[in-house]
């Protein structure tokens, strides 16, 4: 377990930070940007949880924990050996199973969905867009450095999960706000 007794270290005062293996890099390095975006996504999910109950809250709690695992995975540029915490395909599979279960109860889409509806749905749409940005950052990092491929799969599935969960939070799609192309011309 992690124990944090001192919050500030002054180590980043010159614009550099330490990765999980102790390597010092610029705070704007792609890897730091990638796990920073994941942290921001996690925070937006925390906001969504203020409006979630029951199974939806439990799903989001698991996802928040997974995102910490994902950040730990991203913060080490080396393979880290067998003991390294890694995002796994089982975590991706769980997201897919939850998506399928949630989607089965939804009304079929006849148009694109505008972010909104219930407070939970609006927060989940915001989280979805932040997850998409995190995914783009991880893909950019993966073009330059080694990244666990399950990380990209997890983020890709997570944005889908949040979309479907947002629809479920809108009375299983009945309360979705639909795009009407050219409505305001």
Question: How would you describe this protein?
Answer:
With 185 residues, the chain is mainly alpha-helical. The protein has a single domain, classed as Hypothetical Protein Ta1238, Chain: A (Up-down Bundle), CATH 1.20.1200.10. Helix content is 56%, strand content 5%. A hairpin with a 5-residue loop joins strand 1 and strand 2. The radius of gyration is 18 Å and the shape is elongated. The N and C termini lie far apart (57 Å). 34% of the residues are buried.
The strand line-up of the biggest sheet is 1-2
Tell me the CATH topology. Hypothetical Protein Ta1238, Chain: A
Q: Structural class given helices, strands, pairing?
A: mainly alpha
* CATH class group: Mainly Alpha
CATH superfamily: Cobalamin adenosyltransferase-like
Number of helices: 5
What is the CATH architecture annotation? Up-down Bundle
Q: Work out the strand percent.
A: 5-15%
The CA-CA distance between the termini, in Å, is: 57 Å
Give the overall pLDDT as a whole number. Answer: 91
Shape: elongated
Order of helices and strands: EEHHHEHHE
**Uncertain stretches:** none
Helix content: 55-70%
Count of discrete domains: 1
Q: Compute the CA-based radius of gyration.
A: 18 Å
Tell me how many strands there are: 4
Largest beta-sheet characterization: 2 strands, antiparallel
């Amino acid at each position: 377990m992690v124990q944090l007794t001192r919050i500030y270290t002054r180590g980043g005062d010159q614009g550099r930070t330490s990765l999980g293996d102790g390597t010092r890099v610029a705070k704007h390095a792609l890897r730091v940007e990638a796990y920073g975006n994941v942290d921001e996504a996690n925070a937006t999910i925390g906001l969504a949880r203020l409006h979630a109950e029951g199974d939806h809250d439990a799903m989001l709690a698991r996802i928040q924990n997974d995102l910490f695992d994902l950040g730990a995975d991203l913060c080490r540029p080396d393979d880290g050996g067998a003991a390294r915490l890694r995002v796994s395909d089982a975590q991706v599979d769980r997201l897919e199973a939850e998506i399928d279960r949630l989607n089965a109860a939804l009304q079929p889409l006849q148009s694109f969905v505008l972010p909104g509806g219930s407070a939970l749905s609006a927060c989940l749409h915001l989280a979805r867009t932040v997850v998409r940005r995190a995914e783009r950052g991880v893909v950019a990092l993966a073009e330059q450095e080694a990244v666990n491929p399950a990380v990209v799969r997890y983020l890709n599935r997570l944005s889908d999960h949040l979309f479907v969960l947002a629809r479920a939070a809108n009375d299983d799609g009945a309360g979705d706000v639909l795009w009407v192309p050219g409505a305001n011309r």
